Amino acid sequence: MKLSSSAAVFAGLAFACLVSMTVAEQSDMNERHLMAGPAYDCGQQDFPQNDHMSPQAVSACIDSLTEEPMDKKTASAEVKTPDKVVYCSMDCKQNLTLQECQACLQTAKLLRENYCPRAVSASSVIGICSLMHETTGTFT
């Protein structure tokens, strides 16, 4: 049985995201004070997992989230585009301060072009702040 190239790519992305999540969970257990961060869900609602979100939809979603008041440790937004509804949410872990949550969300806005289009194909939830720690050292 042969996989089509797009199916193979999707399977690879799904596996990579699963590995990333497992590694992030282990890192979070071992270095909670360094690696803990909110999860940013660039996932989709009511349409196929391999239906990619456009960069414009990702941008609108994150812009909506950054406009949410950060008096709570959660934020969510629903963005309607001509052909789909995108639901995205951020849930900060308990050991982050509100300032750290807000900083993480603002950084997610900067990462949207590179991060979200890849993550959404596997409909994954990955810790943005863990990624930030590795790439920018923000939460050292």
From TrEMBL:
It comes from the Eukaryota. The keyword Nucleotide-binding does not apply. Keywords: Signal. Residues 35-138 form the Gnk2-homologous domain. The keyword Signal applies. Residues 1-24 form the signal peptide. This is Gnk2-homologous domain-containing protein. It comes from Marchantia polymorpha.
